[in-house]
Specification:
By secondary structure, this protein is α/β, with parallel strands linked by helices. It has five helices and 13 strands. The chain has a single domain (3-227), classed as Metallo-dependent phosphatases (Purple Acid Phosphatase, chain A, domain 2, 4-Layer Sandwich), CATH 3.60.21.10. The protein has a six-stranded mixed beta sheet with strand order 5-6-7-10-12-11, with helices on one face.
């Protein structure tokens, strides 16, 4: 049993927005993902940190979910800013059940226990880029969701999974970072940064939290192993 993480798969098997058009590392990315998951075993857990499908609805994303479901391991899905298919947890769980997507679960307003470790997370938010009233409301909801997830972890060791980076060169979201440090998060995995933005990523230990960028194109489309 092992724990992995990867984000930003940007699948488009049921819609017309393939990432291959960007060339470079994205060329043939679906096959690269399939190959990258070959080291994952059926009893392993993979946290998928958002921007998973370009589908605009659950139905439009069905082919992408089928692809993810067919990959090895149990997957925990975190919401990304481009996951327009995302709806209520009950509707997503019902959709997964009706379609036999038995390896997909939601990490949202909850936590999942992996051995002695609590897997916590939420989307996060680039609050400092837009401090308007609407953005502030969304950001506050994200803080509430993150704290609820962290609280659910109890006294266990905690790994936090976000879509948006809580810090990178020139940016720091103190509210999210403060919550992680207060609840004793040991590691934080995040995505969202692509291409030239990879150079802005913060990796390594900051304030007692070890940060990892796990965007798919950064990882070469191979999930990052976090725990054996």
């Amino acid at each position: 049993m092992a724990l992995y993480a990867i984000g930003d798969t940007h699948l488009s098997l049921g819609s017309d927005k393939p990432m291959d058009v960007f060339g470079g590392g994205w060329t043939g990315y679906v096959d690269k993902l399939r190959q990258g998951f070959e080291e994952v075993g059926p009893e392993d857990t993979v946290v998928l940190c958002g921007d998973l499908s370009w589908g605009m609805s659950l139905e439009e994303a069905r082919a992408d979910f089928a692809f993810l479901n067919g990959l090895p391991g149990n997957k925990l899905l975190v919401k990304g800013n481009h996951d327009y298919w995302w709806t209520t947890a009950s509707k997503m769980r019902q959709f997964f059940q009706e379609n036999g997507f038995s390896t997909l679960e939601i990490l949202h307003n909850n936590c999942h226990i992996y051995g002695e470790v609590a897997l916590c997370g939420t989307r996060g938010w680039f609050y400092e880029e837009d401090r308007g009233e609407h953005s502030a409301k969304i950001f506050n909801r994200e803080l509430i969701r993150l704290e609820a997830s962290l609280k659910a972890g109890g006294e266990r060791e905690k790994i936090c999974f976000l879509h948006y980076p809580p810090l990178y060169q020139g940016y720091r979201c103190q509210e999210i970072i403060g919550l992680m440090e207060r609840y004793g998060v040991t590691r934080c995995c995040y995505g969202h940064l692509h291409g030239g933005s990879h150079r802005l990523a913060v990796s390594g230990e900051r304030g007692g939290v070890e940060y990892h960028l796990i965007a798919a194109d950064y990882l070469g489309f191979r999930p990052k192993k976090l725990l054996p």
